[in-house]
């Protein structure tokens, strides 16, 4: 029986696991802050108000606006770190490029809030497009069949919604805005993809050996 005690037991590095944990932390902290900040915004409506208004409304609601923008930046930075470990594990470059572009755009949204005008809109559009493509191309990470199906359903649903939104515009004549409101439409595009990325983070953490079980099954303790 092999006996290795305490810190001497060092399993091989599993970078997919590290990437998954970092992705989970980044996205979960954002959703936590998002829910907190929404409660501090007087009269906020998830249908009428966009997500960006939480960090860039005029006048600013402090400290909520600063907390929200910092949370966006943290999510972007952690997602970039997750991309690094995915590439280090030999993950798909196409997926990684899309996720990296999404992360950079999220940081841009946090650095240039809604009141920044066109530059904020630019980063928002890039975040929409790159986020949707990252969800679609995640199947190239060697996922199991249920995750592949989920990525394609979520990704293409968001992509079709995004195309229709660009085609019909953001005016009141857009049928989707009439149905969901501008804030509701934005969430319909962003939330499923971001929730899928949380699920992907959880999936990646399960890649490789289960080292806790290995300690008992192979005599390590």
From TrEMBL:
Membrane spanning residue stretches: 15-37, 67-87, 94-116, 122-141, 148-168, 188-206
Record bears the keyword Transmembrane: yes
Superkingdom: Archaea
UniProtKB keywords: Membrane, Transmembrane, Transmembrane helix
Protein name in the entry: DUF998 domain-containing protein
Lineage: Archaea, Methanobacteriati, Methanobacteriota, Methanomada group, Methanobacteria
């Amino acid at each position: 029986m092999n006996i290795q005690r305490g810190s001497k037991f060092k399993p091989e590095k599993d970078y997919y696991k590290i990437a998954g944990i970092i992705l989970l932390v980044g996205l979960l902290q954002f959703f936590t802050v998002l829910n907190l900040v929404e409660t501090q915004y007087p009269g906020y409506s998830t249908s009428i108000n966009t997500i960006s208004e939480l960090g860039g409304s005029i006048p600013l609601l402090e400290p909520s606006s600063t907390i929200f923008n910092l949370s966006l930046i943290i999510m972007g930075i952690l997602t970039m770190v997750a991309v690094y470990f995915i590439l280090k594990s030999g993950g798909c470059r196409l997926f990684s490029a899309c996720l990296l572009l999404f992360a950079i755009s999220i940081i841009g949204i946090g650095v240039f809030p809604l009141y920044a005008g066109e530059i904020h809109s630019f980063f928002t559009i890039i975040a929409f497009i790159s986020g949707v493509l990252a969800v679609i191309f995640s199947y190239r990470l060697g996922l199991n069949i249920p995750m592949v199906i989920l990525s394609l359903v979520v990704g293409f649903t968001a992509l079709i919604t995004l195309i229709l939104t660009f085609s019909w515009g953001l005016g009141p004549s857009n049928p989707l805005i009439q149905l969901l409101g501008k804030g509701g439409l934005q969430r319909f595009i962003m939330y499923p993809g971001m929730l899928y990325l949380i699920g992907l983070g959880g999936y990646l953490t399960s890649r490789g050996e289960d080292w806790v079980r290995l300690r008992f099954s192979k005599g390590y303790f």
